Amino acid sequence: MNIHEYQAKALLRSYGVPVSDGRIVQRAEEAKTAAGELDGPLWVVKSQIHAGGRGKGKFVEAEAGEKGGVRLAKSKEEAETMVKQMLGRTLVTHQTGPQGKQVNRIYIEDGTDIARELYLALLVDRASSRISFVASTEGGMDIEEVAHNTPEKIVSFSVDPASGLSDFHGRRVAFALGLEGNQVKQCVALIKQLYKAFVEKDMEMLEINPLVVTTDGNLKCLDAKVGFDNNALYRQPDILALRDETEEDPKELAASKFDLNYIALDGDIGCMVNGAGLAMATMDIIKLYGAEPANFLDVGGGATKEKVTEAFKIITSDPNVKGILVNIFGGIMRCDIIAEGIIAAVKEVGLKVPLVVRLEGTNVDLGKDIIRNSGLNVIAGDDLSDAAQKIVKAVRG
């Protein structure tokens, strides 16, 4: 789960992390009052969406001379004008895709006099199962570009959970960032604060880009992007309360409410599979035979009839889907349950595209009988290869 920048900064502030003072605005008429509560004389007006690259982003139907989703205002009146220009409009960045995201919230923040821009992130290194730090002197840039063009400017290391975090980790980051004097002490303290927040709040990623050195020589987190482990949200009710469902794909949101693992893709063949590995293999074989999957959908090993029905409804709600492939291996999951779910879903939402079903495993004969006697126009797949070829052929005409 992701949260907005202003929410991330409020969370980090509670751990003592140095961030700028700011106010959130959801209506244009609130902007002038919000700016007046800050010191000025420079205000930063930031669009709040779950995507990076906001500063370089462009609004749909932008007027000539309009800048991106992050702008500098030199007066309260100018800040108010900028808020009016941004709220309710669609911002397109390199992370949103061409469809962009609608801006429903604006963060007005005190301006900062910047001497240097740096990069700092914490993330879970899945190779070592440890928390890793990533630091670079090239702040304010896309870290992917830095990694590609100047990888030597990125320093990365992990923390051994047995010994835990120590001051030398903070000093290692400070030296990697070229900090000096009192900045080193500030960095050691900052690393402790960020690490504590990361662990206690079950974060997956914490990115500060940029981490700045101000003109008076102090460190400040000028931006913050935070993602949390969905599997740990049950023990983080305060974090779960920050969820902004308007930022999520409606189909993925619906799937999460039924404990379905769903990710929308750009293809035209919908997939319903049990097991992540089998789902990946199903997507691969669809591509092998010349088509593209419209989604990743794992109904899990113990799915119920209701979950299967909901999964089918989510797939058919995608207007890009021109055909559906159901590929189930019944171990814990019984094939007759899948069959009953498919029939229930088709009767509820209808079937307007070709449907190929391949069943194997527990109660497979019963499952096939249920589908065969349902009267539905369903194409049977003998095995995965046969099923993939049949759905691709049906979709391609």
Automatic annotation (TrEMBL):
Give the EC number(s) listed in the UniProt record.
6.2.1.5
**Annotated pathway:** Carbohydrate metabolism; tricarboxylic acid cycle; succinate from succinyl-CoA (ligase route): step 1/1; One-carbon metabolism; formaldehyde assimilation via serine pathway
Enumerate the catalysed reactions.
Answer: GTP + succinate + CoA = succinyl-CoA + GDP + phosphate; succinate + ATP + CoA = succinyl-CoA + ADP + phosphate; (S)-malate + ATP + CoA = (S)-malyl-CoA + ADP + phosphate
List positions binding ATP. K46, G53, R54, G55, E109, T112, E117
Q: Which residues form the ATP-grasp domain?
A: 9-239
Cofactor note (record): Binds 1 Mg(2+) ion per subunit.
For the keyword RNA-binding, the answer is no
**Gene Ontology biological process terms, A to Z:** succinyl-CoA metabolic process; tricarboxylic acid cycle
User: What is a single Pfam family found in this protein's UniProt entry?
Assistant: Ligase_CoA
Co-factor(s) = Mg(2+)
- Which residues are listed for substrate binding in this entry? N274, G331, I332, M333
Record GO terms (molecular function) = ATP binding; magnesium ion binding; malate-CoA ligase activity; succinate-CoA ligase (ADP-forming) activity
- Transmembrane parts of this sequence: none
Task: List keywords of the entry alphabetically.
Answer: ATP-binding, Ligase, Magnesium, Metal-binding, Nucleotide-binding, Tricarboxylic acid cycle
Superkingdom of source:
Bacteria
> What residues bind Mg(2+), as annotated?
N209, D223
UniProt similarity note: Belongs to the succinate/malate CoA ligase beta subunit family.
Function of the protein: Succinyl-CoA synthetase functions in the citric acid cycle (TCA), coupling the hydrolysis of succinyl-CoA to the synthesis of either ATP or GTP and thus represents the only step of substrate-level phosphorylation in the TCA. The beta subunit provides nucleotide specificity of the enzyme and binds the substrate succinate, while the binding sites for coenzyme A and phosphate are found in the alpha subunit.
Q: Which HAMAP family match?
A: Succ_CoA_beta
How does this polypeptide assemble, per the annotation? Answer: Heterotetramer of two alpha and two beta subunits.
Q: What name does UniProt use for this protein?
A: Succinate--CoA ligase [ADP-forming] subunit beta
- Organism of this sequence: Neogemmobacter tilapiae
